[in-house]
Amino acid sequence: MPFGDGETILDVTRRAGRQVPTLCHDDRLKPAGACRTCLVQIEGARRLAPACSTKAGDGMQVTTANERIDEHRQNLLALYLVDHHQGHDDCEDGAPCELHAMAAAYGAPTDWEPLPLARAERPNDDNPYIEFRADRCIACARCTRYCDEVEGVSAITMAKRGIETTVSTADALGLFDTTCELCGGCVAVCPTGAMAEKMPLVAKAPPERKLHKVRTTCNYCGVGCQMDINVDGYGNNGKGQVAKITSPPPGTLPSDGNLCVKGRFAYDFIDHPDRLKVPLVRNAQGELKEATWEEALAAAAKGLRAVEAEHGKDALAFVSSSRCTVEENYLVQKLARVAFGTNNVHQCAAT
Fold first, then answer.
1. What's the mean pLDDT in 213-223?
2. Is there a contact between 16 and 1 (Cβ–Cβ < 8 Å)?
3. Partners of 288 in beta bridges
4. Which range marks the domain in which residue 307 is found?
5. In the predicted model, what is the mean pLDDT of the chain?
6. What mean pLDDT comes out for the span 256-282?
7. Which of 63, 93, 181, 285 is deepest in the core (most CB within 10 A)?
8. What single string gives the DSSP state of each residue in 62-93?
9. Residue 35 lies in a domain
10. Which CATH number fits the domain that encloses residue 152?
11. Same domain membership, residue 91 and residue 55
């Protein structure tokens, strides 16, 4: 099969429609060959080779599945399972566990004796969004490589050795005290749920309760990142409730499947009890009272005209929200320039 310059065996086999499993690989990251689940057989080679980091070559004959490869994958996945101290049902509480799904697909033994947990945790990390659960980690390093290569902040790293290898920070500090931007990318790339969210509204749902994904565009700024809203149809008394935000697959434009802290975690305002649902206008005593939209707009116009009359047009300024649509932001600047005659208008995404 033809291949491009620098393409790996994994690239070529995927394009050919052949399944080669990976746990440590992500298309946004440099190939590491750390998990060894993608080993394939190259004719003439004595050892199995990692498909993710082996460059394709002319005349190369590659076998992706045979008795030798299948036995290797089954034993390797079984070893990962004894290092992963959660059963399948307990693991599926944040994102689908790739490890358990892969073990089931390749018939890996599930009855091997678990290893004693030797990884250090960070129980005193008081950040509100991201949690590290050492009992689920298999040291694949996807999270630390993402933090380094994609986010460029290197807030987390692999520390210690052997069965004590763990995801840590400098001096085991909490994420607030590191360079972490709390983007949640480590949560998104983790294949086992070791890096997890602290705040999903539906942390664990029964099997019959499925989250419905809705692809949409984040409106916190002008970049236009795509994201998946996970809606729990049983939440909010059956009216539906946003349970969490997840990243779309790598390659999804314009953000390549990445999100920032606002896009991933700032969704609890949707059903917050303090969210305003009707306009409020201050009465003569200065108290906020519910009003109709007509009353609210009339009060706003009266106040703006009063400022204009006393201090002039340039005493007015209009700031709109990036949560508004492009059309709504356009109307705000028309309101400022045409209706009130001022160029003092801005929007936080600078669109």
1. 86
2. yes
3. 282
4. 280-347
5. 89
6. 91
7. 93
8. EE--SHHHHHHHHHHHHHHHHTS-S-HHHHTT
9. yes
10. 3.30.70.20
11. yes
Do 259 and 227 sit in the same domain of this protein?
yes
- Contact between 262 and 223 under an 8 Å Cβ cutoff? The reply is no
Q: Phi, psi at residue 69, to the nearest 5°?
A: -65, -45
pLDDT digits (tens, 9 = 90+) for 108-136: 998 898 888 888 888 789 999 999 999 88
CA dist 265 and 272 (Å) reads: 14
Cα separation of 9 and 13, whole Å? 6
Measured between alpha carbons, how far is 145 from 159 in angstroms, rounded to an integer? 13
Cα 122 from Cα 192, distance rounded (Å) = 17
- Of the residues 88, 105, 122, which one is the last residue of a structural domain? 105
For position 219, what pLDDT does the model report? 81
**Amino acid in the structure at residue 170:** A
Asked if residue 110 is part of any domain, the answer here is: no
Query: Residue 8 carries which DSSP code?
Result: B
CA angle 15, 258, 205 (to 5 degrees): 95
SS3 230: strand
* Beta-carbon count within 10 A of 38 CB: 26
Residue 272 — pLDDT band, cuts 50, 70, 90? Answer: confident
- Within 10 angstroms of residue 158's Cβ, the number of other Cβ atoms is 17
Residue type, 140: C
Amino acid code (one letter) for 101: A
What pLDDT shows up at residue 289? Answer: 95
Residue 117 near residue 86, CB atoms below 8 Å: no
The residue to which tokens 């499947």 are assigned: 257
How many domains does the structure of the chain reveal?
4
Paired tokens of 109: 């033994």
Of residues 84 and 44, more confidently modeled? 44
Average pLDDT rounded to a whole number, residues 204-209: 54
Residue 52 · residue 23 · CB < 8 Å: no
The reported pTM is 0.83
Show the CA angle centred on residue 142, arms to residues 246 and 107, nearest 5°: 90
Instruction: State whether 25 and 59 are in the same domain.
Output: yes
